């Protein structure tokens, strides 16, 4: 398979998803829902992890769902884990509960830092606090995300549509600002928890906020587009990182997981959703992120893609096997547009990555 077979020949943004890609997305989604346990039957549960003593990790959205499982299992394996969360009191209660378990003996090396992804100022403050500690960072796991099913459009205090900010803008800003620490932790990884739903997404880089009349807002469209934007941005970010920086960018699909993402749907539907036998539980859904963050084969795979100048970043399926993201994600021109527009929205200069890796300071509209 060559990259040219997957790239749109004109490199233009598609305002609508082609029917072939739409059918393919539905086919893959249905297969994932019905057969994901079959596809992942070779995996142990929980996923065995190597000894991670001296390994520093940040996990966003770590108080529930797969983020909670990711943080717990990393800490159990000896890593120093920071739960980057909005509700710090809830995180501390979770840690107290874990430390009280006799088998842990209070030995888990886990901390809490405040991070509100609905505030880009909070992202900058978090990054400044971590970087100022001079600790190397080995894995940044951008797990936190939202899907407000069927809800009306809302905006953050920064003026951005909430799916766009939480799922894409805030983790993108966080990833870039933490590059100095990730470089210290080389070889290190940025793991973005994505979704197969990105295959339904289309991007209008001039209207990522869904505020023009070109596209009618729905929560599904906003979620799908934010996840596609995440893959596109990740792919361009990987190209901006020199090989000697030793920082690898991945997106992962956790599968269809039984979490509180269904809290916004009708109660009757929620009841059925929670008892579907083919859904992953949170521990099963955490495996692809843990694999991407710790397995040595992952960095070798990322290096191979970089050497072959592959147009997209590494993408790991819920089976912990590499897969290709959507055709839209391979579209180089729109991916570059998403990159440029994202930097503009989060208030970073075009050369932010290069300057940070050179040890220089940059100015961000939401803080230094």
From TrEMBL:
<dbReference type="GO" id="GO:0016491">
    <property type="term" value="F:oxidoreductase activity"/>
</dbReference>
<dbReference type="InterPro" id="IPR002347">
    <property type="entry name" value="SDR_fam"/>
</dbReference>
<protein>
    <submittedName>
        <fullName>Dehydrogenase</fullName>
    </submittedName>
</protein>
<keyword id="KW-0560">Oxidoreductase</keyword>
<dbReference type="InterPro" id="IPR036291">
    <property type="entry name" value="NAD(P)-bd_dom_sf"/>
</dbReference>
<comment type="similarity">
    <text>Belongs to the short-chain dehydrogenases/reductases (SDR) family.</text>
</comment>
<dbReference type="Pfam" id="PF00106">
    <property type="entry name" value="adh_short"/>
</dbReference>
């Amino acid at each position: 398979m060559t990259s040219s077979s997957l790239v749109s020949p004109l490199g233009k943004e598609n305002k609508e998803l082609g029917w072939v890609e739409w059918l393919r997305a539905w086919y893959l989604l249905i297969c994932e829902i019905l057969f994901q346990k079959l596809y992942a039957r070779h995996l142990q549960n929980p996923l065995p992890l190597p000894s991670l003593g001296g390994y520093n990790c940040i996990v966003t959205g770590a108080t529930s769902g797969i983020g909670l499982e990711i943080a717990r299992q990393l800490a159990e394996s000896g890593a120093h884990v920071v739960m980057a969360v909005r509700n710090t009191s809830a995180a501390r209660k979770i840690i107290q509960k874990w430390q009280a378990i006799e088998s842990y003996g209070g030995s888990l090396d886990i901390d809490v830092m405040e991070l509100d992804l609905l505030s880009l100022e909070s992202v900058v403050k978090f990054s400044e606090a971590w970087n100022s500690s001079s600790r190397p960072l080995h894995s940044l796991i951008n797990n936190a995300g939202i899907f407000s099913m069927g809800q009306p459009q809302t905006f953050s205090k920064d003026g951005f549509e909430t799916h766009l900010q939480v799922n894409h803008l805030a983790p993108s800003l966080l990833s870039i600002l933490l590059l100095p620490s990730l470089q210290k932790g080389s070889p290190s990884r940025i793991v973005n928890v994505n979704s197969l739903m990105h295959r339904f997404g289309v991007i209008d880089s001039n209207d990522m906020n869904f505020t023009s009349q070109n596209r009618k807002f729905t929560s599904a469209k906003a979620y799908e587009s934010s996840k596609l934007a995440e893959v596109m941005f990740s792919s361009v970010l990987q190209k901006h990182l020199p090989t000697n920086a030793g920082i690898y960018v991945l997106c992962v699909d956790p599968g269809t997981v039984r979490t509180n993402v269904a809290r916004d749907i009708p109660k009757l539907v929620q009841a059925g959703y929670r008892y579907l036998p083919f859904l992953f539980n949170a521990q099963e859904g955490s495996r692809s992120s843990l694999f991407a963050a710790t397995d040595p084969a992952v960095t070798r795979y990322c290096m191979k893609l970089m050497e072959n100048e592959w147009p997209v970043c590494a993408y790991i399926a819920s089976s912990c096997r590499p897969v290709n993201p959507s055709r839209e994600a391979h579209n180089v021109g729109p991916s570059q547009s998403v990159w440029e527009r994202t930097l503009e929205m989060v208030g970073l200069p075009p050369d932010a990555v290069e300057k940070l890796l050179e040890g220089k300071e940059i100015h961000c509209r939401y803080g230094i």
